[in-house]
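It would be a great kindness if you could assist me with a short task in structural biology. A protein sequence and the structure tokens that stand for its backbone fold form the material at issue. I should value your view on which stretches of the chain appear to form regular backbone elements. The record follows directly beneath this note.
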Amino acid sequence: MIDNSFFFRFDRSSFKSFYVAANELNFTKAAIRSGITQSGISQHIAKLETELNTTLFLRSQGGLKMTETGKLLKDYLETIYQKEESLLEALSVSTNSLTGVVSYAMPESCLMSPHFSMMLSVKKKEFPKIELKVEMHDSESVVQKVLNGDVDFGFITQEITHSNINNINFCNEDYVLLTSTQITKSDIKLENLNFVGHPDFQSLFDVWFQAQYPRKKVINLKRLNFTGNTNRIAATLAMVSGGLGVTILPEHCAIDLIKKKQIKLLKNYKPAIGVIHIIHRKEVTLPKRVKKVINTFLSFYHSNI
């Protein structure tokens, strides 16, 4: 029988290695997340299996699979870690000083929106000891990061329906078609334009296209002509302003260049209203410090979770 004394009879580093491997089901990925070598992960787990006189993982060419004992141990550790988290947060709250790391991921366009700087302003005053760890990814990758437990929550530019994800409408933004030369809607066909792509282009294009042509099916991106593709918005805007092609982005990303008339909005194309969503895993109890950060974002536009 596993009781609370069980946890303290073994090396905690071995438990940590097992827990990360149980979430990743891959020793290489577990090693990267833990900051140790793959052989170190393997040694910790082998030591734990010897001490417990059981097998925790089944190893095959297809990868790792937990045994029933492994699943039992993972559930037990999850409970222990959550209790520790709650205790530390209770102590922090009692001294009005939340601490720890809050990690989240989002498309770069979200980083350029007003709510990010608004968050930093609030953070300085209300929770200066919380460390924010922010990663830039396209929406699809953000979803995977959240599902894998790599981050506490994420922002995405498309609505998602998933049994393990809570999806919260955060705020709206305008998606626009940007160019360096003026073209009217009647003069062009989308298939004849040269586009500059970026990591979140797919989701923004889908929303924008449906707003312009609600009765048509979304165009497969393979039918579009791409003369450039970047992983940074600044590079995308530089290509567009340099006349290389057109792109679709939230208007706030290009507002300065629009004011300087280096980039224009195509006439007769209306902005498409896109929704930014905050997502987090359903089965995970969010620590208070994570709720504090999410609720701070939500307070800018509507009620808290």
User: Anything to note?
Assistant: DSSP finds eleven helices and eleven strands in the chain. Residues 4 and 80 are 8 Å apart (CA to CA). The radius of gyration is 24 Å.
